[in-house]
Amino acid sequence: MKTQARVVIIGGGVVGASVLYHLARAGWTDTLLIERAELTAGSTWHAAGGIHTVNGDATLSRLQQYTIQLYREIEEESGQSCGLHLTGGIMLAGTPERLDWLKMVRARGRTLGMDLELLSAAEAKRLFPLMDERRFVGALYDPVEGHVDPYGVTHAYAKCAQKRGAAIERHCRVTDLLRRPDGAWDVVTEKGTVVAEHVVNAGGLWAREVGRMVGLELPVLAMEHHYLITEDMPELVGQPEQLHCIDFEGEIYMRQERGGMLMGTYEREGKPWSERVTPWDFGQNLLPDDLDRISASLEVGFEHFPAIATAGLKKVVNGPFTFTPDGNPLVGPVKGLPGFWTACGVMAGFSQGGGVGLALANWMVEGDPGHDVWAMDVARYGDWTTMAYTNAKVRENYSRRFRIRFPNEELPAARPLRTTPVYDRLAAEGARFGAYGGLEVPLWFAPPGAPEERVTFLRSEAHAAVGAECRAVREGVGLIEISSYGKFEVSGAGAERFLAGTMAGRIPAVGRMALAPMLDHRGKLIGDFTLARLAPDSFLVVGTLAAEAYYLRWFEAFLTPDVTVRACAAEWVGFSVAGPASRALLQALVTVDLATEAFPFMSFAEMEVGPVRARVGRVSFTGDLGYEIWCRADDQRALHTALRDAGAPLGLKPVGGRALDALRLEKGFGTWAREFRPVYGPDEAGLGRFVEWRREGFVGREAALAARDAGGGALRLVGFAVEAEDADAIGDEPVWHDGAVVGAVTSGGYGHGVGLSLALGYVPRHLCEAVDGFEIEIMGERRRARRLDGPAFDPAGARMRS
Prior knowledge:
Residues 716-794 form the Aminomethyltransferase C-terminal domain. The protein is an alpha+beta fold. The chain has four domains: 4-82 and 149-219 and 328-376, FAD/NAD(P)-binding domain; 89-147 and 222-323, 2-Layer Sandwich (D-Amino Acid Oxidase, Chain A, domain 2), CATH 3.30.9.10; 485-568, Aminomethyltransferase beta-barrel domains (Alpha-Beta Plaits), CATH 3.30.70; 675-801, Elongation Factor Tu (Ef-tu), domain 3 (Beta Barrel). The protein is 25% helix and 28% strand. The protein is built from 19 helices and 38 strands. The strands form seven sheets. Strands 4, 5, 6, 12, 13, 14, 15, 16 and 17 form a nine-stranded mixed beta sheet that branches. A hairpin with an 8-residue loop joins β30 (612-617) and β31. α1 packs parallel to α5, α1 (14-25) runs parallel beside α9 and α2 packs across α5. The chain is globular, with a radius of gyration of 27 Å. The relative contact order is 0.09.
């Protein structure tokens, strides 16, 4: 065995083999894959091997398309068959709500170049004759679905990699990982130690254990998963191979397996496997059958597909697969552990394995994944993802694998986990909470006697209450808890230099604030922040809570001994007061003169607010006159009392996150992971005016300048007023112009303050001045849309500067 390698990959399943192949293809051939047994010996070998392109995240859909397209290529290069059966696939809707969801999937597919076709139940029956069409109301057909041979795919990747010079060591368990003084890793194995510059955790069922070797508790858990294979069925004799089929109501997937059918289920009462420790001696084993546990799903399946009910049972497979709390992979570098990478939690390995390998190889070789991989970035989870949290969320996710997630639906498992000191007070005021980054955040406030909100794609029972909150801000004053922002203290003699290098925006003077985009080396957006300068060597940096670990990982590369960056979101909590009466409210609690001339827009200062020492910024994400007030967590209840009491004579109303989202849409303000993503440049996203182009040395400047000189990128973020009725855009809807799909919505909703259904989205640069001819497809219907010349509310920005 080699004693030194540039990269050691731990795990010889389909994901590890894909990473090995993609690194070798990129030129990193000094790479060693170490497998404790044989290739595929974890969960890969017993996988059903289904492949599909549809995913709730656009990037993952693209990477799944790439994975499927790759199979012919690696077959040819390796000489190893992947057993590719590209039969096409059909998704069946048993309810009107599911059919609406399929319409939305078809619409999203248009933005990705997918050829999806909506069918009636009778048309679906002609494509998949085993179904009882009376049980369904419609279907969606995708020509790019089917299944592969797990053994063949994994060995095709491995053979391609070996032909390019990569190495594989079988029957060799990794027992420890130790960081060397020079920054490299000692990979300790049963056959000796390998010194590696990089280590990739592709451990599959053992990814959790590999993570623990370096002090990580990765949010992954294995679940028992059943599928059945029938005896040969006479209904299949002489027929073309059956399509891959998903029956959402039965929570069943099906495909043909030789002369019979394979049927698997994601039952509601899922069962974890090896909840705390995965045994190293678990090999190519299956788990005992537990057909009683899946009987409810099987009964539905037998009703929906009568021929299955009468077929003999040939084989039952019950094996463990790893899942993450949201069902997406964990991919990328880990903060605080240079050279340590993850490629695990890939439940849909044969749909996603190629894309995961491509993105990780790009990341390691080029320093960038080449795609917007936030949906599978390991940094989307923080230290709050404990083993108990992971267990509860994985169980929930597994049980909902084939269930609709509505845009207004908040899932209950592992909640509440993190709360702020005023959580109980807000609940008493009628707050309905959502979870964001593990933190409970108020979404809207239900008035006394308000009906329960039903999950829906339409405007819900909360619509009127959210509207009242929005009008309170626009007409008087609203109180918004803003603890769900990410916050960092940047201090030290090198603080200004550090921020001038990592941020593309202006560095504010003491007592001032500035909006600052953050770019990667390609000049693309990887963050947007508010910088507040407390002193010459001290800043408060406010951004996105969910991306806290993501930002810390990025900052690590630029730290020097004279600067400290510390995450402090849980320490500094607070409120925003916004609306035309917000100045009067706050002035009653401070001795500082808040008049515009004395404390103008984008000012920042420490002051006493009632009984509390706080940091106050003259800014608001509502686009209205407003202030953000940050205090220590121990002081939040006292601050809340003071603000509530002072605001009572002014009609102060509590305001939740849904209203804040509607208000920012009225101003055309973008937000991270929607409008601001690492596939867009600052000019495309409308942030070019915040870039300090004259300052040299910040990350991404040269690439962004080159794009600016070439026209500022191919796209532009624009706002639309949509002729919607009872449903608004939510994101990922196609934008049509003159009968062709030209872009996609990034976010949308109803602007209560302006009485318009609004959407933000990207269109080609040459269309950004067009006003008419646009349509936005909402739930399968193309709705006329008018491009707005500016924000729907206060386009000149007079209110927020008043």
